[in-house]
Amino acid sequence: MSTPLKGLDFWNVGDDISVRDAFGRVLNHAASVRDDFVLFDADVAGGTGAKPFVQKNPDRVMQFGIAEQNMMAAAAGFADTGLIPIVSTFAAFGTMRAHEQFRTAIAYAGRNVKLCCSHHGLDVGPDGPTAQALEDIATMRAIPDVTVISPADANEFMLAFHAILDHHGPVYMRIGRSATPVVFGADHSFTIGKANRLREGRDVTLIATGVMVPRALEAAKALEADGISARVVNLATIKPLDGDEILAAAKDTGRIVTAEDHNVMGGMGSAVAEYIVHNCPVPMRFVGVNDRFGKSGEHDELPTLLGISAKDIEQAARDVVQA
After folding, report:
1. DSSP code of 266?
2. How far apart are CA 99 and CA 138, in angstroms?
3. Which of 88, 145, 214, 222 to pair with 170, CA 20 to 30 A apart?
4. 231 DSSP β-pair partners
5. Model confidence over 220-231: pLDDT tens digits?
6. Which CATH number fits domain 13-181: 2.30.36.70, 3.40.30.10, 3.90.79.10, 3.40.50.970?
7. What is the CATH number of domain 196-322?
């Protein structure tokens, strides 16, 4: 393990941990090994998971209140000092309300700002449709030269956080709110732009991102019981896309199912389809929220209601295999 990660406390595989718990932990760890970043908060540190850092390192926090557009513009200017602004708020505010400021003041200028947003997708749960950002991947990946990351679990998030600090340029990264299974152990390695093949398979490839990764693994086990061999790929970096892994999936298995906690339009599935249609067209199915707003409910109930459960991934795989 590299020196910057020494002393980072990982969770055990199988634990149910919220990624926002990882945000507070990795912020404090990173602050103990480097002094080149500050946190920009929009009065939501308790919601994003940054509160432990705010309490321990108050001198490294810039508080803007509920003024996300101002916060984003200020981060752009602050980046010119050489320090790295970590901008944190809810995804609906960071990727939509302050979208123009991020696009023009940060991305267009290539400024070194990292936008880390919680409250995305159905993972938000009972906060309801106005807080369930189902469009964030689409809006952010459409901006030129922006890296877009959706970690699978708390451990991968912490590794990805250190990676984005070392990467120069604008980054958008999702912070999950609800507790989800830990997939990766302390031996996991994260590289921006690289996917991880978690399971081999010959009949279909399940490409998943974020909270959908453990669901894809669950679906693959169910398919195996019926003699369907499913490869599972964790696509944590949505932009830049790992074309080599996607091309291998298309050539080796001939069928692809994408799974994401996001609108089916413009998200990770769309990114994969764009690559596939140009390089190796194969039958595909898309598991995501089907072009509608979310609904208030528990985070473990909404996936079934809106069609992004493990069972939905399993059924999509059966459909594409039998087509």
Report:
1. S
2. 12
3. 214
4. 205
5. 999 999 999 999
6. 3.40.50.970
7. 3.40.50.920
Q: Contact 6/99 with Cβ under 8 angstroms?
A: no
CA distances, 93 to each of 1, 46, 187, 264 (Å): 36, 16, 34, 21
Average pLDDT value for the chain: 95
Give the tens place of pLDDT for each residue, 93-133. 999 999 999 999 999 999 999 999 999 999 888 888 888 99
Phi first, then psi: give them for residue 276, nearest 5 degrees. Answer: -65, -45
- Residue appearing with tokens 């469009």: 135
How far, in Å, CA of 142 to CA of 321, rounded?
31
Answer yes or no: are the C-beta atoms of 314 and 223 closer than 8 Å.
Answer: yes
Are the C-beta atoms of 206 and 231 separated by less than 8 Å?
Answer: yes
d(CA 216, CA 208): 7
Asked whether the domain spanning 196-322 has the same topology as the one spanning 13-181, the reply is yes
Taken in order 76, 77, 80, 81, the sign of the CA dihedral is negative
Q: What does the pLDDT look like over 64-98, one tens digit per residue?
A: 998 999 999 999 999 999 999 999 999 999 999 99
Residue whose tokens read 């909270």: 211
**Domain segments of the chain as ranges:** 13-181, 196-322
Task: Enumerate the active-site residues.
Answer: 68
Q: Find how far residue 15's CA is from the centre of its chain.
A: 19
Q: How far apart are CA 206 and CA 305, in angstroms?
A: 21
